Amino acid sequence: MKLKYTKCALAIASFAAAISAAHAQSSLANPFGATPANSTAVSAMNKAQALAALPAAAKARVTQKFLDKLLENESNEFIVVFDDETPPTVAATTDLNQRLAAQRAAFKNTRARVRQAVAGHDVDFRDELTNLPHALVRTRNRAALVALLNQPGVQGVYENVTVKPHMSISNPMIHQTSAPASLHKGNGTTVAVIDTGTDYRVADFGSCAAPGGSCRVSHAVSVADTPYTLDSKSHGTNVAAIVASVAPETRIAAIDAFDLVMEDNKLVDRTSAYKVSKAVDWILANKTALNIVAANMSLGGGKYTSACPATTPGTSETYFAMAISGLRNANVLPIVSAGNDAYTDAISMPACTPGAISVGALYTASWNSTTSSGFSYGPEGAPVCFDANGTPAAYRVACFSNSSSALTLYAPGAFITAGGLKMAGTSQAAPHVAGTVALLRAADVAPNESLDQIQARLTNSSPTGASLGVKDWRNNLVKPRLDVLSALANAHYQVMQKVYIAYYGRPADPGGLAFWAVALFRGNAPTTLTDLEAAYSTNAAVKEVVDSFANSAESASLYGGKPTRDFVTAVYRNAFNREPDIAGRDWWAAQIDSGALTRGKAALSIMAGAQNSDIEAVNRKTIVAGNFTTLMDTSAEYNAFLKPGGTGPARARTMLSSVGATTDTTGFLQTVAQTLQTIVSENP
């Protein structure tokens, strides 16, 4: 099956491409030795004879369209996938190394049996994988093709289709700079980038002389026909640098799967389905040693209006599905760009493959809708796309991004500066997600969660209520957008938001929330308010976090020099929007003044003891506060809110003071947005 692929990376800078002889097509060595000169192949068959020699079971191993194409020629090269004969008991084991070892052994035995069966025919096994049951095969005549298709150990025969790459800083948009940059870094993880190679000499990776050691690029390998290159087209460098930016301590395994070939009188990067699987095979072989947690594939093509079919032998969709399934079975999350064909009802393959996380592109800022620095943007080889109803703006779906109901989520994709290069495309959106997976799978977050749980984190809206959905202005479909803070969020984030409300009467800023939530996480603190209050006397992390609020500069500004009963009254107002009864106020004040309770512990205990309508007031304040924190996602908003002597915290306190037990938190989103706008305008 011949697929049309459209390059989605839209390079802005011009590059002087110096193409060396190393890019020339090289021959692929046969690991099984040369085919014997005096083959014992049966006599030549014509097309009709070959068809007659194929029973229904053999024809089911290949699509009719591809079979017709094969039978038009005497000699053909294609992919063979062998049956997976791994024992069911071993295939179901949770021990990854044991499972992979059993699969390798089963694949090896099946291949050996098939090779033995066709040894008397002109079948040349040119290359085979180890961790996937795939081989690149050339048959020299129709009789050899018939012999291979008739082997029961052959699952299917697939066309080795051609694949192209999918050709203003974005991190604040996904809450990476505000929340986890200094806390969660993806340490101990590796992200594999299947692309055009990576120039590890650039500063983003440490200006390395070679991969490994202190270089962010731990491995640079080639599965292409030509040796590893330093990315003459710069696509893979930009993609890998985005991963490195989102996850500052993850390592990059750069897999060069592309060769430079002449197409329409110009040199272009191209790979094939088999080379993509060969890259996956390398990932499976090195998964455990490198702790590879995600595989980024900014490549693909075709137009698929729904999830790709994954169970029909012989189809390209099924072939890619096996690669995606192999990654997921090894606990590696496949992240795939959706494509830049401007489709509003479809995405490309393998993004459409079940199990793949498909990623569309958002703008990162506003600019003229037709050009940016003289550059007209749109898919290569297709008409330039334009934005109707206004100019591009941050969080708006890029006009070139593919979109459909099958899309998983959006991430920043236009324009992204990384690796010293400025590019745009869904190619640039996907590595934001891959880097976030590295943050999530690191030892200090959720290393043991399942891939489904990690995916739920990626697509979850704010845990405290704010919807992070983006409506595509072209088709009105709503899909989640990537938000690191929400992905990292757990019950510690929610309980810390309540501490902020009780003590300061305001929502948490993203950086502060992440800092204290991580402190609780690392201290194995409880995740509910009542349990946190009970653990104050036994858990050092809880005591340190809670008492830090009382010792802060903001606390001194709010409560310094005031009677203790005024502090207690403020906590009641912050938490419940009401005055305390006199007896209760005086009791709490006496406990604090006697030293029986710290102010931090008292605030925590007051909120934890909420009853009746007070509980609902706390819950709704927590939702609104979470919305405020989530929507504070630009540098201008961060800086304005935290400006020394500024009006940010006071404005936020005023906003939250109007939230009570009956507030419509969804309708209140507009007030949250307006408050942020006011803070920005007042604190330039």
Question: Could you describe the 3D structure shown?
Answer:
This protein has 684 residues and is an alpha/beta fold. It has 3 domains: 47-160, Alpha-Beta Plaits, CATH 3.30.70.2980; 165-361 and 403-448, Peptidase S8/S53 domain (Rossmann fold), CATH 3.40.50; 490-683, no CATH class. It is built from 24 helices and 23 strands. The strands form 6 sheets. Strands 8-9-7-12-14-16-19 form a 7-stranded parallel beta sheet, sandwiched between helices. A hairpin with a 2-residue loop joins strand 20 (416-418) and strand 21. Helix 7 (235-246) runs parallel beside helix 10 (426-441) and helix 13 (491-504) packs across helix 21.
Tally of alpha and pi helices: 24
Reading off the top of the CATH hierarchy, the class of the largest domain is best stated as Alpha Beta
End-to-end span in angstroms? 58 Å
Number of beta strands = 23
Largest sheet: 7 strands, parallel
- In CATH, the topology of the largest domain is named Rossmann fold
Note poorly predicted spans: 1-42, 369-383, 462-466
CATH structural architecture of the largest domain: 3-Layer(aba) Sandwich
Sheet with most strands: strand arrangement: 8-9-7-12-14-16-19
CATH homolog superfamily of the largest domain: Peptidase S8/S53 domain
Give the percentage of residues in beta strands. Answer: 15-25%
Q: What is the overall pLDDT average?
A: 86
How many domain units?
3
Shape: elongated
Rg measurement, Å: 29 Å
Tell me roughly what share of residues is in helical segments.
25-40%
Question: What is the assembly state of the chains in this entry?
Answer: single chain
Structural class: alpha/beta
Signal peptide: 1-24
Domain DUF4214: 547-610
InterPro entries: DUF4214, Peptidase_S8/S53_dom, Peptidase_S8/S53_dom_sf, Peptidase_S8_Ser-AS, Peptidase_S8_subtilisin-like, Peptidase_S8_subtilisin-rel
Active site: 195 (charge relay system), 235 (charge relay system), 427 (charge relay system)
